[in-house]
Amino acid sequence: MTSEITSPSRRSVAKGAAWAVPAVAVAAAAPSLAASTNYCGTSPGFTVEAVCPPIDIDVLDGNSDSLYFEITNSSNDCTVEAGQTFTLASTNFVGATVEGLNALQVDAVVFGDDMQTGTIGRDIPPGEAVRVNVFPVAQLDVNGQVAGTTTLTIEGMPTTQDYTLVELDAFGLAGLTLAFCGEPQFILTTLLESLGEEVQELPAETVELLDALLGDAGLSLDNLLEGLGLGGILGGILG
Predict the structure, then answer these.
(1) Is 204 exposed, middle or buried (0-12, 13-18, 19+ CB in 10 A)?
(2) pLDDT tens digits for 216-239?
(3) Which domain holds residue 223?
(4) Are 168 and 186 in contact (CB under 8 A)?
């Protein structure tokens, strides 16, 4: 279950007589409010979710998002104090580099080349979350197709996600990188299932791209379509 990041609640303002309260009374209440923050202590509870880029036809138009982890304060009544640490580790992403990134921090793009340690730089109120973006597509330089795993660990609790990055320079789409969760066969099967018979409306160059991506993984687009009950639907495009 994912908790959405919500904006801080605003105090409701009473009408009528409340407007007559002297300004000094409002100012005097501020220290009391600040002191009332209930922090969770040294071992707060978190939930972590890996949020994957959507698998739909938009990704073939260059609109692929990147993977991110969402770290949520699972408490109902206490605030996680800034300074909590986490680690981010990625394996097997040989040939993938990221340019122009800052040091590892939350709410910013990061690249987990080996194991890195990050720090949550702000308080997290009950039910709210911070985001750790991994392998930002716009800043990636990928040599062909790479696949591996990324793991975020906080309080000894690891959350791992398979991830695939594909650079499409070889298909005449210079500078376009796609990012997916999972293995290539799962990714493309999911994409084709979502399209169904609409796959026959794809431009020929898109079909050829799908076929080439599958070929790199040792798979066949014809066989995959046959398994989905869509055999022969592309006619002579691949002939």
Answers:
(1) exposed
(2) 667 777 777 777 777 766 655 555
(3) 183-239
(4) no
